[in-house]
């Protein structure tokens, strides 16, 4: 038996407070829908008094909510609380969250004495409780608040009817042992401490937000406040994906669980990164591009033999399809063999040894060796040169069509040029290739995979062609999407030509025999 820990997501409130992370009304509704869908217990949908837009978003999320409790934040005054209630009351399960800074530094802001603040807390929680059964109190900057006063604020809030008591580490100052002790002590020593749920809300200023949240749970907290991708003020909040997966992966040691469907983590992480404009760092725990990627030979060999050697969770646990074995200068023979097999090349040991030498040479020159590079490496073995090569491309596009393409190709060593039109720049470029190299292959797939960030953004394009049941896929990357598309198209055509020419699947070339089982 493990204890349930409630997951309180504040991506739409604290997360949106990250400078530049503002989301539109529609985006907030979409993210709230995804959070609700993945089993998040409480969604803090916004700060209704902050603006008409925030109010409208919280109200709309409340109306659309299905299973999650919908919460709004309000300062410790009646006007904020009333506005919050107006927004959240539409939810099947509404919550009012009210707070004030209780540390000495924060008491000085509204210039309240301890007694005046205590009275304010009593009045505000009582008022909120008269509106809503589910009231959360936060003593902001709790971890820097004097113990006696913190205990007093918590007891007042409990006596006034708060059902959840949040102990925020507002500036990310605390450390795990202190975090656990503080919650343990509050539960044990506060009047009514065992009748409410204690929550933890940690910031990541010192990189300890996840550790502090989990320690608070060890201390007795049963609600973790967090955000997707750890979005939030300054260095961010506790990352939802980290605490959810930590409890799941370590369930044998930590007797806690959440209700979140971890398989939905990747999808929401990507969506939040897109709508907030905050890309996820490559080595971010759980959701980073490299979280399930392995480049070094010893790791790759281990992964191929038993994934548990270098992974404590499977990519499928978070909604990814597979582990990625990235080919680079640290990769070994086992990974190369496996990758080539995936690409359709089955090599004997001596053949692999030969290819491996050239692979290492290439890897020394390139950061990452892509599948295309490996195919090119194998085709060198095969002594097959591309019959079609792109020499130059010039495309004119814009609002007034038709778009035109001027292309120069080298086909079997002879330079040829054509000018064509099309429905858009990519279509006109593809028509130009076809004008010079006639074929009856059908375009099955055209996909712009990824565009990296920045002014030198790279478009990675895939093109799949089908001819008489033979399928060939071409890929290319370029800072110009039309050039990437045309190169991918030509790449697919070249592969199709090779496939046309191959009659038997097994053959011997230059002493290296391999089996091309297609893509
Ligand atoms: C740690 C956290 O994340 S706290 C939440 C932070 N989130 C936000 O601030 C949400 C966005 N905020 C806003 O849109 C605006 O600040 C508003 C609408 C809330 C208030 O705007 P304004 O009335 O113009 O006040 P302003 O932002 O300049 O200053 C904050 C005021 O709130 C008061 N205040 C701050 N926290 C609290 C609180 N918890 N309870 C009561 N009053 C508070 C301050 O004393 C100050 O009051 P004053 O103007 O009388 O000195
Ligand atoms: C309002 C509270 C919960 C907060 O965001 C903080 O203290 O960081």
Automatic annotation (TrEMBL):
What cofactor is needed?
Mn(2+)
Please state the pathway this protein functions in, per its UniProt record: Amino-acid biosynthesis; L-leucine biosynthesis; L-leucine from 3-methyl-2-oxobutanoate: step 1/4
EC number, UniProt record:
2.3.3.13
Q: Please provide, alphabetically and separated by semicolons, the GO molecular function terms listed in this UniProt record.
A: 2-isopropylmalate synthase activity; acetyl-CoA C-acetyltransferase activity; manganese ion binding
Q: Which GO BP terms, alphabetically?
A: L-leucine biosynthetic process
Provide the reaction this enzyme catalyses.
Answer: 3-methyl-2-oxobutanoate + acetyl-CoA + H2O = (2S)-2-isopropylmalate + CoA + H(+)
Q: Where is this region: Regulatory domain?
A: 389-519
Q: Known PROSITE patterns for this protein?
A: AIPM_HOMOCIT_SYNTH_1, AIPM_HOMOCIT_SYNTH_2, PYR_CT
Q: Does the keyword Metal-binding apply?
A: yes
Reply yes or no: does the keyword Ion transport apply: no
The record's GO CC annotations read: cytosol
Q: Which SUPFAM superfamilies match?
A: 2-isopropylmalate synthase LeuA, allosteric (dimerisation) domain, Aldolase
Which InterPro entries does this UniProt record tie to the protein? 2-IPM_HCS-like, 2-isopropylmalate_synth_dimer, AIPM/Hcit_synth_CS, Aldolase_TIM, LeuA/HCS_post-cat, LeuA_allosteric_dom_sf, LeuA_bact_synth, PYR_CT
Q: Which UniProt keywords apply?
A: Amino-acid biosynthesis, Branched-chain amino acid biosynthesis, Cytoplasm, Leucine biosynthesis, Manganese, Metal-binding, Transferase
| A UniProt-annotated Pfam family | LeuA_dimer
The residues listed in the UniProt record as binding Mn(2+), with positions renumbered to this chain, are 14, 201, 203, 237
Name all Pyruvate carboxyltransferase domain ranges. Answer: 5-266
Q: Which Gene3D superfamilies match?
A: 1.10.238.260, 3.30.160.270, Aldolase class I
What is stated as this protein's family in its record? Belongs to the alpha-IPM synthase/homocitrate synthase family. LeuA type 1 subfamily.
PANTHER family (UniProt xref) = 2-ISOPROPYLMALATE SYNTHASE 1, CHLOROPLASTIC-RELATED, HOMOCITRATE SYNTHASE-RELATED
Its quaternary organisation is:
Homodimer.
Q: Known NCBIfam families for this protein?
A: leuA_bact, PRK00915.1-3, PRK00915.1-4
The record's HAMAP family line, in alphabetical order, gives: LeuA_type1 (MF_01025)
The record describes the protein's role as: Catalyzes the condensation of the acetyl group of acetyl-CoA with 3-methyl-2-oxobutanoate (2-ketoisovalerate) to form 3-carboxy-3-hydroxy-4-methylpentanoate (2-isopropylmalate).
For this entry, the protein name equals 2-isopropylmalate synthase
Record lineage: Bacteria, Pseudomonadati, Pseudomonadota, Alphaproteobacteria, Rhodobacterales
């Amino acid at each position: 038996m493990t204890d349930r820990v409630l997951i309180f997501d504040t991506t739409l409130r604290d997360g949106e407070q990250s400078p530049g992370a503002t989301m539109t009304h529609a985006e907030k509704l979409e993210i709230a829908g995804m959070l609700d869908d993945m089993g998040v217990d409480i969604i803090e949908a916004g700060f209704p008094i902050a603006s008409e837009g925030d109010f409208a978003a919280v109200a709309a999320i409340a109306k659309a909510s299905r299973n999650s409790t919908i919460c709004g934040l309000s300062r410790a005054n009646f006007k904020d609380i009333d506005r919050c209630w107006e927004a959240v009351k539409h939810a099947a399960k509404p919550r009012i969250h009210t707070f004030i800074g209780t540390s000495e530094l924060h008491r000085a802001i509204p210039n309240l004495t301890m007694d005046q603040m205590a009275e304010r807390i009593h009045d505000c929680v009582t008022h909120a409780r008269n509106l809503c059964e589910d009231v959360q109190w936060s003593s902001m900057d709790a971890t820097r608040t004097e113990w006696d006063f913190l205990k007093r604020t918590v007891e007042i809030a409990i006596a006034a009817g708060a059902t959840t008591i949040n102990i925020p580490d507002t500036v990310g100052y605390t450390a795990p042992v202190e975090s656990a002790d503080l919650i343990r002590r509050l539960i044990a020593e506060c009047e009514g401490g065992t009748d409410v749920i204690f929550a933890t809300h940690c910031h990541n200023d010192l990189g300890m937000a996840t550790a502090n949240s989990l320690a608070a749970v060890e201390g007795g907290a049963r609600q973790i406040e967090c955000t997707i991708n750890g979005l939030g003020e300054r260095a961010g909040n506790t990352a939802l994906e980290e605490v959810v997966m930590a409890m799941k992966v370590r369930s044998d040691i930590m007797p806690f669980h959440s209700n979140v469907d971890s398989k939905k983590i990747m999808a929401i992480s990507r969506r939040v990164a897109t709508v907030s404009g905050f890309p996820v760092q490559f080595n971010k725990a759980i959701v980073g591009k490299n979280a399930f990627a392995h480049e070094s030979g010893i790791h790759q060999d281990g992964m191929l033999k038993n994934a548990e050697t270098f992974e404590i969770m499977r990519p499928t646990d978070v909604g990814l399809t597979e582990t990625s074995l990235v080919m680079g200068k640290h990769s070994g023979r086992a990974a190369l063999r496996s990758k080539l097999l995936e690409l359709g090349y089955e090599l004997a040991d001596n053949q692999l040894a030969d290819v491996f030498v050239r692979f290492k040479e290439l890897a020394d020159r390139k950061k990452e060796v892509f599948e295309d590079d490996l195919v090119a490496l194998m085709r060198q073995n095969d002594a097959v040169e591309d019959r079609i090569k792109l020499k130059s491309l010039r495309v004119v596009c814009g609002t007034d069509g038709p778009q035109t393409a001027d292309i120069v190709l080298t086909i079997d060593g002879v330079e040829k040029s054509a000018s064509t039109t099309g429905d858009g720049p990519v279509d006109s470029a593809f028509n130009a290739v076809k004008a010079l190299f006639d074929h009856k292959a059908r375009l099955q797939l055209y996909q712009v995979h990824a565009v990296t960030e920045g002014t030198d953004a790279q478009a990675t394009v895939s093109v799949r062609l089908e001819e008489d049941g033979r399928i060939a896929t071409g890929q290319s990357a370029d800072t110009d999407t039309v050039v990437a598309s045309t190169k991918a198209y030509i790449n697919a055509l070249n592969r199709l030509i090779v496939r046309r020419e191959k009659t038997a699947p097994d053959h011997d070339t230059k002493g290296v025999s391999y089996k091309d089982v297609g893509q």
